[in-house]
Amino acid sequence: MQNKTIWWLIGVLILAITSVNTLLALRSSNEIAGIQKSLTNTGEVMMLLDELYISVTLAESGQRGYLLTDNERFLAPYQEQLQKVHTSINNARAISSEIQGQQYRIEQLIDLVNQQFSELSRTVELAKKEKDLLAVHEVKVGNGVLSTQIGEAYRKAMLAESDFRESLYLDFAIAQHRADNTLYLSSALTLVLLLAVFYLARLNLKNERRHRSQLEAQNNTLAQKVEERTFALKIYADELARSNRELEEFAFVASHDLQEPLRKIQAFGDRLLNAQQQQLDETSLDYLARMNKAAQRMSKLISDLLAFSRVTTRGKEFSSCDLNKTLHQVVDDLEISIEDSQAQLELDSLPTIKADTTQMHQLFQNLLSNALKFKAPDRPLMVKVRCQQTTGPTLPGEESGLIWYRIEIHDTGIGFEQQYADKIFMPFQRLHGRNSYEGTGIGLAVCRRIVERHGGKISTTSQPGKGSTFSILLPQDSAMVTIEGNK
């Protein structure tokens, strides 16, 4: 009677453990599948937003080329995008974003795109009816505002999707951690089961072989589940890496292709200015100057985007890099800017580390250029570069004795509110208007990518009217540090 009771208790225990393990496994699997579905959906939303924005940009470029040259072959991209945009709009409306308020932003963008294409069609028709000046006037008055609104709507929608994607990556990491905990719990429950079977074996030696066989079968099942789950997670991680590479390649190709129409705009603008300068009035000359300036600004923005995407995709292998030599090369390159701003520089001696020399040059050039650009008008500018070796228990690689360096670049410029310290490292984030200070808002984002690629960290502290300090933490050998962004 006692043995039957024990068998009953063991049976209940086995059923409970199996049920718990199954539920935990299903929960982890469903959670990871849900995150994967959300990541796929947000990727599709971002791709459709890019299609809409690129369609407008290409169509506008073709329309402007036609208005400037009166050559209908420049209408090819405009007509091609005119045929494609309706499909892109239908696709954008068909997909449903999981972000609250995002559907409204997408509809706003679609409405602006429809308005822009209506304006483009109207100006093209005016040009075809030999009303070129009126068409150009319509472009200057209307399209510029719409283009700005479209760009702003596009950036808001993309930023929302990007933030949401980052939260999904965080959720995925949490799900992985939870899956590990599930494995530990399963192991603990299995241990409990082993102890119970062992206790039963002592009470009933003649059933020992049968009980052991059952236990081995359950262990094999658990091991198979763990192996299957590990394999599924590996496939998912590989898919995420492939998706990131495709997004970076897409940004590179799209930015590269945008340079060609911009070069034509600048070239034909220069030709028109040289050929018709005497015949054009001041207003027309002003329009041409603004057009060329906008094209130059767009070209600079595209170049910065290319630099941003190439940090990880075109980075060179780490080798011995003399930061002291690199810093002085940057100072030589910025000699004219330093003289114009009448800046005084105080430079510490910097170490030699294992890094990408080209990217270190770009890092220092971006930070020093920022310090020179945001000079306070009412006081002289002082830029100090300080360096010290540092260690600490929270630093990656500390357990292996890896040496770290903290490099600080302090300036006495205009400064900014500390609440924007994280925002300025995001792409396209500007704290000042373009009319006050030039720039595309990508330079500091490139700096952050470079530092993170080298396994380090970058941060800033600032106060309005008292300048800013940018702190860079770099390992002596970046190849020894695990870089999250390249996993």
> Which structural class is indicated by helix and strand composition?
alpha+beta
The gyration radius over C-alpha positions equals 31 Å
Strand content: 5-15%
Q: SSE order in H/E notation?
A: HHHHHHEHHEEHEEHEE
Low-confidence stretches: 137-142, 395-399, 482-487
Compute the number of strand runs: 7
With helices defined by DSSP (H or I, 4 residues minimum), what is the helix count?
A: 10
* Chain-averaged pLDDT: 75
Distance between the termini: 59 Å
Roughly what percent helix? 55-70%
Shape: flat
Protein model, in words:
With 487 residues, the protein is an alpha+beta fold. The protein is built from ten helices and seven strands. A five-stranded mixed sheet has the order 2-4-5-7-6, covered by helices on one side. The longest helix has 72 residues.
